[in-house]
Amino acid sequence: MYKFIITIDCLPGTRGKILERAPEAQAATRAEEGCIQYDFFACTDKPDRLVFVETWVDQAAHDFHMEQQHTKDFIAYHEQFNEKLVFETINVASGE
Description:
Low-confidence stretches: none
Mean pLDDT: 94
Number of strands: 4
Distance between the termini: 20 Å
Number of helices: 3
Strand order of the largest sheet: 2-3-1-4
């Protein structure tokens, strides 16, 4: 499984612009083979922060996703409103 979190600190006042397009990107992404989860969240502590959580069957499925036109279009759209973007791959903690 390939899972990650993307945190976007939006330029002040632009979070809504990204959220206007996010449901369309979400629907197209969830329809892709290999997508297990694609969700976005508004941070309650920081009004200009969005958090995207994605889970894919493997990295190849995510690589395919990154080549799709709807993905390229959504990234190009929201990049203009990004103050900072952090991409973190995550795994289930094993306690070790």
